[in-house]
């Protein structure tokens, strides 16, 4: 069994409104799976179905090969986008309560909380009330509560919102560490640079339908444009640019060079290879820069959603 | 089950530790007792205020009618005309001036009696004067017509109807009063409990929504568990508060009355006296005996069992509705439109209890409303001391529990959807749609 979580043709309607239409996803064990999509696409509904907060109208979800059941709750840690804590409760008491709701014994919960509080350097907050903490501090507590019961599946909905860059990095490292220890992570966000950094697999949902999914590298290959960013050291810049424009699709670009190089994005036609281009360029001058432009997750997101609309 | 007990414990502890809850628990009986003490003290003051009323009796018929009492002194003015008498009364700072015109015909005279005063006179004073004058003038008129008053007095007969049920149970009017007190107290207690703690449940649901913790919680527990846990936890806190109120109130009451020497039960005693007058029994000793008898005659066991059952199911019925309202809205100001349909039957029940059950505990209206689920807990609790057949109680309870189960299901549906809905205030139509999600 390579997939920890599988959703098979899940649909959900709220009255007349279709929130999810026949969506299937497979989340491989030990991966970080990016669940992407514009606002209102249906991501949260899907996450709520996985958490058994909402029931699907049709379709079913399996965890570790078994249909979702109430006892799976302790195997999942969920950090919702709309999150908060009881304002007038003390940090330690509250964390203990939430941990025990996930099925930990009091003793076990205490020990683990101690470990995590030390780890994130918030040990002296135990007796503080949530309303005395800043938003970022409360988020740390919330993160700990989500991962405390060592779930197989972690679901983070916009985990970095409210964190300063230092703490965001800290949390990112913790997520990666948890993944390395065997957890599988579903990660829902609008911040494409963190998708780029973290995710191995993604699924893109738009208007209740899944429009794209797979390994991030495969998808990038699929969206590759055969465009190369080149730098060329030559005496006859303008003449060469004219020549190139007859043979290839070119566009001006900019990057850091030491000399006054000719800088271009060059898109190859279908029957050309990068070697053809490189050979041609090297016959015209000294090639100082030659990089394939790989589409970013951001480009893919925008393009896929645009095409779908 | 483990989850439920965790939730109940948390709800209970947060409620009980809450500062305003603690302050309310301690201050309420203090304020109540202080109020009662002040009222008792003031009414004592009021009673001991001595008033002087000047009387200008031109007819000379009232000489022996108006006797001085502890608080009222009558000063008869002689040989003055009305204007001078007014001046005397005003200068002497008398409470007022009673003026009777010098007419021989009693019928005419009765129409020309006036009371002059600086401020509006007290209603009880005027009616007591009226009573005294009426009696005196009636006696005089009867004497004029040659009727022997002594004979009339001698022929007066007092009737007290002895009451007995077909099976031989003796009852009396005081019985009804005792029953009324028990039934009324039970019904009113439930009413208060629903209003105070139902609101508390609603607020705590709204708090969970506004602090956005709700989704974190219901990824661990079922919404219905959370809702029931909330209701039970808050109710236990409520019972704790009530118990403290009763104990603290009792202690304070005795302490205050010892220190100040004010009989706080006096006002209650005054009411008892009124009741006694209403019952018009000549023998006070017999009266107390009757009251005790009435108390022992109450279906005590039935009362206790029925109280617990109707109280619990009635309270849970309403509190689940309160929880559903809390889930449907985002903040407390939006609750108004949904509160009305809850409060209406509750208030209706109390009014029916007060006006109809007293008049006719087994009449059509009382009986019907003691079966309608939203009013039955209050109305039935008020009826039971008067003796309600067991089959009626069971039927009413069955209807109530059936409704209760339906309401919890209904409330849980609203709750489940509502707690995840933010933003606009839902309409009834939308609530109906939520039932189908």
Automatic annotation (TrEMBL), chain A:
State the protein's name. ATP-binding cassette domain-containing protein
Record lineage:
Bacteria, Pseudomonadati, Bacteroidota, Flavobacteriia, Flavobacteriales
**What would be one Pfam family of this protein?**
ABC_tran
Q: Which domain of life is it from?
A: Bacteria
Q: One GO molecular-function annotation for this sequence? A: ATP binding
Species, as recorded: Mangrovimonas spongiae
- Residue ranges constituting the ABC transporter domain according to the UniProt record: 5-232
Q: Which UniProt keywords are given for this protein, alphabetically ordered?
A: ATP-binding, Nucleotide-binding, Transport
InterPro entries recorded for this chain? AAA+_ATPase (IPR003593), ABC_transporter-like_ATP-bd (IPR003439), ABC_transporter-like_CS (IPR017871), ABC_Transporter_VariousFunc (IPR051782), DrrA1/2-like_C (IPR025302), P-loop_NTPase (IPR027417)
From TrEMBL, chain B:
Membrane disposition: Multi-pass membrane protein
Q: Where in the cell is it found?
A: Membrane
Q: What is its main location?
A: membrane
Q: What residue ranges are annotated as transmembrane?
A: 21-42, 180-201, 242-262, 300-318, 338-358, 365-384, 390-412
A Pfam family matched in the record: ABC2_membrane_3
Name this protein carries in UniProt? ABC transporter permease
Q: Name one GO molecular function term.
A: ABC-type transporter activity
Span of domain ABC-2 type transporter transmembrane: 19-412
Keyword Transmembrane helix appears in the UniProt entry:
yes
What InterPro entries does the record tag this protein with?
ABC2_TM
Q: Which UniProt keywords are given for this protein, alphabetically ordered?
A: Membrane, Transmembrane, Transmembrane helix
Gene Ontology cellular component? membrane
């Amino acid at each position: 069994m390579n997939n920890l979580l599988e959703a098979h043709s899940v649909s959900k309607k709220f009255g007349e409104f279709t929130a999810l239409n026949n969506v299937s996803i497979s989340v491989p064990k030990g991966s970080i799976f990016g669940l992407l999509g514009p606002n209102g696409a249906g991501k949260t509904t899907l996450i709520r179905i996985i958490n058994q907060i909402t029931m699907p109208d049709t379709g079913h979800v399996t965890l570790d090969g078994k249909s979702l059941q109430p006892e799976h709750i302790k195997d999942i840690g969920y950090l919702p986008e709309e999150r908060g804590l009881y304002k007038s409760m003390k940090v330690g008491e509250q964390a203990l309560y939430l941990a025990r709701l996930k099925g930990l014994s009091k003793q076990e919960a205490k020990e683990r909380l101690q470990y995590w509080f030390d780890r994130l350097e918030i040990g002296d907050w135990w007796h503080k009330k949530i309303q005395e903490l800043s938003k970022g501090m409360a988020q740390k507590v919330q993160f700990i509560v989500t991962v405390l019961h060592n779930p197989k599946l972690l679901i983070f909905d916009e985990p970095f919102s409210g964190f300063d860059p230092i703490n965001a990095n800290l949390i990112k490292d913790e997520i990666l560490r948890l993944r390395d220890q065997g957890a599988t992570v579903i990660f829902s966000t609008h911040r494409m640079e963190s998708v780029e950094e973290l995710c191995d697999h993604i699924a893109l949902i738009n208007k209740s339908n899944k429009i794209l999914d797979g390994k991030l590298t495969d998808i990038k290959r699929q969206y590759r444009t055969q465009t190369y960013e080149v730098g060329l050291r030559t005496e006859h810049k303008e003449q060469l640019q004219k020549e190139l424009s007859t043979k290839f699709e070119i566009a001006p670009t900019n990057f850091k060079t030491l000399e006054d190089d000719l800088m271009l994005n060059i898109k190859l036609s279908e029957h050309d290879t990068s070697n053809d281009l490189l050979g041609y360029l090297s016959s015209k001058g000294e090639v100082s820069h030659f990089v394939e432009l790989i589409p970013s997750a951001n480009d893919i997101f925008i393009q896929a959603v645009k095409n779908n609309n | 089950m483990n989850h439920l007990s965790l939730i109940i414990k948390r709800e209970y502890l947060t409620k009980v530790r809450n500062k305003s809850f603690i302050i309310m628990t301690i201050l309420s009986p203090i304020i109540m007792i202080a109020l009662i003490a002040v009222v008792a003290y003031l009414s004592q003051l009021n009673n001991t205020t001595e008033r002087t009323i000047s009387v200008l009796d031109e007819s000379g018929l009232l000489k022996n009618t108006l006797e001085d009492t502890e608080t009222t002194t009558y000063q008869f003015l002689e040989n003055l005309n009305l204007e001078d008498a007014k001046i005397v009364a005003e200068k002497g700072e008398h409470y007022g001036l009673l003026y009777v015109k010098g007419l021989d015909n009693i019928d005419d005279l009765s129409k020309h009696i006036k009371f002059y005063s600086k401020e509006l006179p007290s209603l009880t004073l005027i009616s007591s004067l009226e009573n005294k004058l009426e009696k005196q003038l009636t006696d005089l008129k009867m004497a004029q017509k040659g009727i022997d008053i002594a004979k009339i007095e001698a022929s007066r007969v007092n009737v007290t109807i002895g009451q007995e049920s077909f099976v031989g149970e003796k009852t009396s009017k005081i019985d009804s009063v005792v029953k009324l007190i028990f039934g009324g107290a039970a019904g009113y207690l439930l009413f208060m409990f629903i209003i105070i703690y139902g609101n508390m449940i609603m607020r705590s649901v709204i708090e969970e929504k506004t602090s956005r913790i709700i989704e974190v919680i219901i990824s661990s527990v079922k919404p219905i568990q959370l809702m029931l846990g909330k209701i039970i936890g808050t109710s236990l806190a409520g019972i704790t508060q009530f118990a403290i109120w009763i104990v603290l109130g009792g202690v304070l009451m005795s302490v205050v009355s010892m220190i100040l020497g004010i009989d706080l039960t006096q006002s209650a005693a005054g009411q008892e006296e009124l009741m006694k007058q209403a019952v018009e029994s000549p023998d006070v000793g017999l009266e107390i005996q009757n009251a005790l008898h009435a108390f022992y005659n109450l279906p005590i066991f039935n009362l206790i069992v029925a109280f617990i059952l109707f109280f619990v199911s009635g309270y849970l019925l309403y509190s689940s509705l309160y929880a559903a309202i809390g889930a449907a809205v985002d903040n407390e100001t939006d609750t108004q439109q949904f509160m009305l349909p809850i409060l209406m039957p509750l208030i209706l029940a109390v009014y029916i209890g007060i006006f109809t059950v007293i008049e006719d505990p087994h009449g059509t209206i009382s009986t019907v409303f003691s079966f309608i689920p939203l009013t039955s807990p209050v109305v039935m609790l008020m009826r039971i001391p008067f003796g309600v057949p067991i089959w009626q109680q069971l039927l009413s309870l069955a209807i109530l529990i059936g409704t209760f189960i339906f309401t919890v299901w209904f409330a849980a549906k609203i709750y489940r959807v509502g707690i995840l809905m933010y933003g606009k205030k839902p309409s009834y139509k939308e609530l109906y749609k939520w039932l189908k999600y």
